[in-house]
Design goal:
Methylamine Dehydrogenase, Chain H; eight-stranded mixed sheet; four-stranded antiparallel sheet
């Protein structure tokens, strides 16, 4: 395996990124309302896309037409088309949503794209040549919460969606002008908004990522309960042929990519990509792609970076910082207690002085009584 190339673009977190087909360009969002396009041969900034008012949440490059689509928390999306003079021209998309746009993906045909949102809505967008803008048709039912991820079936009609209502669903996104898809395990008649499949996360976690296999006959989704579920459907309104749940010891995965029908890569909060292998007879966690020495015989428990020997040094540093913070907090607590004790002692002396000042005779008599009762 070739050594990874590392290029530092920004000190800010990258909230979204996408490469073009030949990976000569990459569009990134540095946690702002702008997207930057870099040339990957020189890693110099070519252009900044700045039409959004709020944070850009997702970016997608169309591999054939080389167009870019962006969506943002400002509830808008733009399609950016390259011109002959090297300028990227924006075209507004009429999403008609009242919450943040969260995710966007081009269809394989690149004649439409889908935008997920916090409005419990998926906007399937196509170009209106008469008006010269992109218009949206909404998928709403039975969505019950924010849609977090999307993936298109290879036929360009079926659309998988993962949402915060702990469900992964497959919808028909058939629009007028689309080529009628061939019958598949997901169904034969596919009018718009048809629900072809609905599956729950095993332990009730948000569904962060969905992915179709290259053939489209398998759906994988990753949930916040650190599980990956793989579904082989048998037909509409029928139980799946097979359903496998992989429970990982690592932190939750946020993205999934099929390499082949029998291999899947997942990555997320554990800071490294993990390879899974299998098929309709079963799936298993194979190894970490960051560890070139690991093999398929690697232990299934503790594959994640947080259980990796290479991460022990960082864990010890974190522990040292925590102990220093604890010691500092203890010192502060002791100082506060000392101050409180001094204040109480001072108040007690003040009370004694006030008592002596108000009744000096009784205080003197009490004092003489103590002396007379001595040994």
């Amino acid at each position: 395996m070739a050594a990874p190339q590392i290029h530092e673009l920004s000190l800010q977190p990258l909230t979204a990124h996408s490469f073009n087909a030949d990976r000569s360009l990459v569009a990134v969002c540095e946690n702002t309302n702008e997207a930057q396009i870099y040339n990957t041969s020189t890693w110099k900034l070519e252009q900044t896309l700045s039409e959004h008012d709020k944070l850009i949440t997702s970016i997608d490059f169309a591999p054939q037409s080389n167009r870019i689509v962006t969506c943002s928390q400002d509830r808008n999306a733009y399609v950016w088309t390259p011109t002959q003079d090297g300028i990227w021209k924006p075209t507004l998309v009429l999403l008609r949503i009242n919450r943040s746009a969260t995710f966007v993906r081009w269809s394989p045909t690149e004649t439409k794209f889908a935008v997920a949102s916090g409005a419990r809505t998926i906007a399937v967008c196509s170009f209106d040549e008469e008006s010269d803008w992109w218009v949206a048709k909404h998928i709403k039912k039975p969505l019950r919460s924010t849609v977090l991820s999307l993936d298109w079936h290879p036929n360009g009609v079926l659309l998988a969606a993962g949402s915060a209502d702990m469900k992964a669903r497959v919808f028909s996104a058939f629009l007028k002008g689309d080529e009628k898809p061939a019958p598949s395990v997901w169904g034969t008649k596919l009018p718009f908004n048809t629900v072809c499949g609905e599956y729950s996360s095993p332990a009730g976690g948000w569904v962060h990522a969905v992915a179709f296999s290259p053939s489209g006959d398998c759906l994988a989704f990753a949930a916040h309960d650190s599980t990956i579920t793989l579904v082989y459907p048998s037909g509409p309104e029928s139980a799946p042929q097979a359903l496998y749940v992989i429970r990982s010891a690592s932190l939750p995965f946020m993205t999934l990519t099929f390499l082949t029908e029998s291999s899947l890569v997942a990555a997320g909060h554990d800071c490294q990509p993990i390879l899974f292998t299998g098929g309709q007879q079963g799936w298993e966690q194979s190894r970490s792609l960051d560890d070139s020495k690991s093999s398929s015989t690697t232990s299934k428990v503790g594959v994640g970076r947080l259980n990796n020997e290479a991460f022990i040094g960082s864990k010890l540093q974190i522990l040292e910082v925590l102990l220093l913070c604890l010691a500092r907090n203890l010192e502060v607590w002791v100082e506060k207690k000392k101050i409180q004790f001094i204040k109480i002692q001072s108040q007690a002396l003040d009370l004694m002085r006030d008592k002596v000042a108000t009744s000096p005779k009784s205080a003197q008599a009490g004092l003489m009584g103590n002396w007379s009762s001595g040994p």
